[in-house]
Amino acid sequence: MTIAIGNDHAGTQYKFEIIKKLERKGYKVVNFGTDTDESMDYPDTIHLVANAVESGKSDFGITLCGSGNGAQMTANKHQGIRAALCWNNELVALARAHNNANVLSIPARFVSLQQALGFVEIFLTTEFEGGRHQTRIDKIPC
User: Fold this and answer.
1) What distance in Å separates the CA atoms of residue 38 and residue 29, rounded to the nearest whole number?
2) Which residues are catalytic, by number?
3) pTM of the model
4) Which domain holds residue 120?
């Protein structure tokens, strides 16, 4: 499974730890994010993550920015993306199970590293429930 990851300067340190965890588990990771803490514009990396997921080159995406909002908004501009901004375990599980989210947006300045690592685990192991949820998802695109 291939995971695309992108971040701005606020998510760099978390990104490195997430990549380590994913690679230890055997995932292929494509890093579109910045590798420094120097200020940069999050859309420059988030669009690359969204393109990778939307095109099928990556199975899922993970985005990180300070609040998670900008990254999630940017990713969701792509028709094939269902990015979910999550700050607790329940939201992550519901984003996958009910919304079939394909991009996880993490607010790096508002959660701990341990929480972020846990979110990634939940996101990648929770299955979409389908059924009535698929009917709703089919109504999302404009």
Assistant:
1) 22
2) 65, 98
3) 0.97
4) 2-137
Question: What is the count of structural domains for the chain?
Answer: 1
Rounded Cα gap, residues 82 and 27, in angstroms:
21
Residue 34, in any domain of the structure: yes
Classify residue 78: in a domain, yes or no: yes
3-state secondary structure (DSSP) of residue 67: coil
* 82 in Cβ contact with 99 (< 8 Å): yes
Report in angstroms the alpha-carbon separations of 30 from 2, 33, 52, 69, 87: 7, 9, 9, 22, 23
Q: What digits encode the pLDDT tens for the residues 81-136?
A: 999 999 999 999 999 999 999 999 999 999 999 999 999 999 999 999 999 999 99
Question: Any idea what the CATH number is for the domain that residue 77 is in?
Answer: 3.40.1400.10
Structural domain contains residue 142: no
Q: How far is CA 35 from the centre of its chain?
A: 17
Q: Measuring CA to CA, how many Å separate 83 from each of 25, 38, 64, 140? A: 23, 25, 12, 12
**3-state DSSP call for residue 44?**
helix
